[in-house]
Amino acid sequence: MTALEAERKRWRDVLTRLISITQSLAERNLAFRGSSDKLFQPDNGNFLKEVELLAKFDPVLENHVSRIKDGDTHAHYLSKDIQNELIQLVSDRILTTIVTQVRDSKYFSIILDCTPDISHQEQMSIILRSVALKGQPEIKEHFLGFVNVEATTGLNLSTVILDKLTDLKIPFDDCRGQGWNILKQYVNITVKSWSDTRWESRLQSVHAVRYQASEIREALLEARQKINDPVAKVEAQSLAEEVGSYRFLICCVVWCEILSRTNTVNKLLQSASMQLDIAVQLISNAKASLTLYRDTGFSDAQTTARSICEEMNVEAVLKDKRLRTSKRHFSYEAPDEPVADALQNLEVNFFNIVVDSTIASIDERFETLNQVKTKYGVVLNFSTACQMSSDSLKGQCMQLEKTLTFNQDCDISGVDLANEIKTLPDLPSGNMTALELLSFLCEKNLEEIYPNLWIALRVAVTLPVTVASAERSFSKLKLIKSYLRSSMSQERLSGLAIMSINHDVGKQISYDDIIDDFASRKCRKGHF
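RE: above sequence
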């Protein structure tokens, strides 16, 4: 091996290790830099500390660090600019892999959501949902990065996402659906902080009070005895009285019950593999459960609250509030008479309102998803479609053809789709989901025999149910762009987020390709 080849191999080995360190820190959402950019300084940050650690055991980095210390090389590739460049190269390579997968899938849906970061800049998270066709069909949701947006109007967001897709060379004509944040949040009672992006944390907050009310009250009473601050003493006494009150316990039990009934459905809907037909059924069941709870829930909550009061040794009564008298003005409509009974007032003005609001919110989501499901009913309710008459089946297939038509271009033929459904072989199960049917066609190599059904199913399973993936990306945003890293550039933020969220894709990329990209920049070809 010539000296030039040996030197080139040494530099590639060094850069391979630096890329690996970059990926490791990004996947764990750790800061790269400290207040110093020099090796063997106590505050030089995680990146250089990782280099120092590996140099103790790895001969390649040991040799590289020794050359830097001895002054034998000035191109050490450990600076902050090189770190940014490596982050950009790795994230670009991950994006290239994702874009290739999306193009191979052809049809995709867009999931968007926005939130302000620590520096009060509005960040839009972009997720693409598609069906991977290599091997068994699999639903994939890919994070494409954060984009800083100046305004969250529909026009501006549309412009930003179209520009992003154009930059990535992903044809928008293949987009078949979009998802936006429509979740409603209800909880107002908690004893601990909750996550801004994780809805189910609200249940955990209320759950802590519901099943530990007695312990919380005892802790507050003890605090009242031990603290010296008169203001804090009064607050502790007031909170202890509130936690031990019959009214508070009824409200807490009601909240916990409502959130428990919706939390399971909510967590299932957040799954990346959730399908529209299953989501509609889950929401329908949740609505039926809450409707039934409205009839008996308040009396059940009273019974539970009484048992907690007995455990605390407090009286289970509601205090009647004196009603204000006010001068009545003439009106053609008689005003509602105020409810004098405290228990009835709590039921009317709290329980009924909360349950009805929850049911209305669920019903709103059900109607929205059900409208979409109706358009794709022929492939989402496949067991029913197979039993339809020829005319009814043809009518639904023509409706789906119309849904999938844009600018005279249509993905499928409704007439051919109806014929394909009628000639399908016996299925393993009469109640298969769209994804299961898609997998069946793939397993039996029937894609070319039933091309219209194959395309219709692929489009149907890409339709998003929630924006949970975008919300989860905000958790990474808060970890990466923290208070101490608030001056981070947009390119670095998006690159680190891509590496962290798509770490499974990052493990598949080739370091050689990244090194070649690195060498092609500036004047580095002599090294690599």
